[in-house]
Amino acid sequence: MKYIIGATLAFVLALSSCSLDLVTENDLTYDTAFKTEQELNATTASIHFFLNSYFGGTSPFYLVGAIADESVYPSLRVWNPQTVVNHLGEGWKGLYDAIFESNLLLDNIHLTQDLTPERRNFHMGQAYFALGFSYFTLSQRFGEAVITENSTVIKHYALSSKLEVIDAAINYAKKALEILPTHDKLTDRTGSLIRYKQFASKGTSAALLAHLYAWKGSIIELYKLGGDAQEAYKQSMVYASMLIDGQVGPYQLCATPEELCQRLSSPEEENPEEIFSLIFDRYRSEYSVSPMPATSYIGWPVNESQTKGDIVNGTLRIYRKSVTERLYPEPTDLRRVAFFYPVNDADEDPSEPAARYAFLYKWRKAVYNVDKDSSLGKSFRTIDAHYTYWRLADIILLRAENAAKLGLTGEALADLNTIRRRAGLADYAGSGDELKLEIFRERERELFGEHERYFDVLRNGYVRQELQGKFQVLTQQEINDGALVLPIPSTASRTKDGRIINTLIKQHIYWSKYTK
Predict the structure, then answer these.
(1) 180, CA 20 to 30 Å: which among 64, 138, 169, 374?
(2) What is the mean pLDDT of residues 342-360?
(3) Distance of CA 462 to the CA centre of its chain
(4) Predicted structure pTM score
């Protein structure tokens, strides 16, 4: 099986069960590929390329967990097993490409000459963060996964357990946190400050750890595993506090939801709330698109080539009533008019099909391709936005969630009300399970279109209440057998023609009857 190391790295590794052969171009080998920082930088760029590419596709979990009244994927949203299997695509390959590249860098950085300690830490930090982030994502999406030793050990690996994968991610994220500077001090090899927040820093590493520990605690509870969920929630609060208190970088909330939308819609400008983003490079090719999940909702007026009526063909659609009565029931909530295009109901013809829908306007700018066949002379490609994966409001609400689970009502309310006040709302004063649910709802309101709500649902144990179809009737045994994660990709243990090459990797029990 061959892996392309990346568009910026000019060699291919041919991998087999018993050899590691180099196929070279221009006599490029391991001995020369890492000789200078410029050459080392090719591997660092490849790490980011693979991470970015993996999240460029639409996640089945985003479609399953998204708040929507209508969808072109109804069978997927009710978790029809065969539909899920057919929606897998390449499965986890992109993540393991990033893992391989990260290990490759760590295994060979000692060959780079004249590398200062600061530059060594930069490159190693990018690799450690990518390893932590990749294993975190594998844990969320597949539950169990393979933890590779390095880039040179070629053997048959077995799947590691859920907690082993999470703990591996935590270990790498801590290494990144230890050696990386804050983002405002992050520089490239020429000494220039790095603007893009896809590059790992202390802040991105702390955000990863906050989410990792929150995920660990919830997985212990969801699957009834051995482990201390309460301690995991406490650790999540520790790392969230580092971000909120400015210990790992100067992050701050935008003043209003409207300012937030303007920042999200201006990727070329600094967003003080942004912690970690996956870059959208519009110039990479005419086919490159934003990895932003919200693209599934976007139509008119962001897409100038569409009319309001075209929304009936959108991937995900939400009714106005759902926005005003379910998502934002309080009329003073500023996110109603900031996040959705302000159409006056009195101006609408109720007989028009589009009259029932809300139009997402959290991101305002589009990227077009030249199209001579279009009456506008252009065709819509995507929204002009990075995928802001974590921002400060997310971390504040995550800390509130953990505090509520720990019974720290005062601390949970303080964080919840910080976000409510920004939205123009009065303070909330509930407690107990009511408070926990309200924090979950606030995350829905604040992060609409940005995050994979599915994992919020799992983290809070709301599977049967908040998801559709088969989710509502799953037994605890089916959950333990893998029903809430994706099937292990067949390519992990079989060749393209179906021949088994790794007998150590076993399919989740739940999915085994659908993947034979």
Answers:
(1) 138
(2) 73
(3) 20
(4) 0.92
